[in-house]
Design brief:
The chain has about 190 residues and is of the alpha/beta class. It has one domain (about 1-185): Rossmann fold, CATH 3.40.50.10420. The protein has helices at about 1-15, 20-35, 35-40, 55-65, 140-145; strands spanning about 45, 70-75, 80-85, 90-95, 100, 115-120, 125, 130, 150-155, 160, 175-180, 180-185. The strands form 3 sheets. A 7-stranded mixed sheet has the order 3-2-1-6-9-11-12. Strands 8-7-10 form a 3-stranded mixed sheet. A hairpin with a 2-residue loop joins strand 11 and strand 12 (about 180-185).
Length: about 190
């Protein structure tokens, strides 16, 4: 069930036209940027969008213009992940996992504060904030270590189901979801 639903939604996302993806992504970014949480945040912790995910590149550029730090994840073997600051997209290279990452060591990593904005990717969500990622468990392990992080998912509205997802005990829900149609959950 879980894998079939994930595949179905990812296929739907893949079929999104680039114009539609950009339009919906811009609405999501505007909602986030208009929030008090974004205003107060010192650092934007975000994934680097790939495939047909919500486009995070314009948001990252805006965060730099707004004087915020930007931190992005580096995934290692055995599900380990840490976040490092970047000052430019030129620092990014394609990793062995096929995602764009900076080439930085764990010693350069930074830990999110409760007031920072922390964006979470995913394939499928429900109204309660439960999520299916991409199957690696990287974010769930990270949240296990840092449970006080306020987790914000950014997704297209068709990725949010009207029924409860079947999740495991180790799956960590997000605190809110921003779609092009608005906000689900508290901010």
């Amino acid at each position: 069930m879980k894998n079939r639903l994930r595949e179905e939604i990812l296929q739907k996302r893949k079929e999104l036209s680039e114009e539609e993806r950009q339009k919906k992504s811009a609405k999501i970014t505007a909602t986030l940027r208009g929030s008090a949480r974004y205003e107060k945040a010192e650092t934007l912790f975000t994934f680097i969008s790939m495939d047909k995910e919500v486009n995070t590149y314009p948001l990252i550029e805006q965060a730099w213009q707004d004087g915020k730090k930007v931190a992005v994840p580096i995934a290692k073997a055995k599900g380990e992940m840490y976040f490092v600051p970047i000052d430019s997209f030129s620092e990014l290279k394609k990793s062995r996992f096929g995602v764009m990452e900076p080439e930085k060591e764990k010693e350069e990593s930074i830990i999110p504060k409760e007031t920072d904005v922390f964006l979470v990717p995913g394939s499928v969500f429900d109204q309660k904030g439960n999520r299916y990622g991409y199957g690696g468990g990287f974010y769930d392990r990270f949240f296990e270590k840092y449970p006080s992080i306020f987790k914000i998912a950014v997704a297209f509205s068709f990725q949010v189901m009207d029924f409860d997802l079947q999740v495991e005990a180790f799956d960590k829900p997000v605190d809110c979801i921003i779609t092009e149609d608005g906000l689900i959950g508290g901010f």
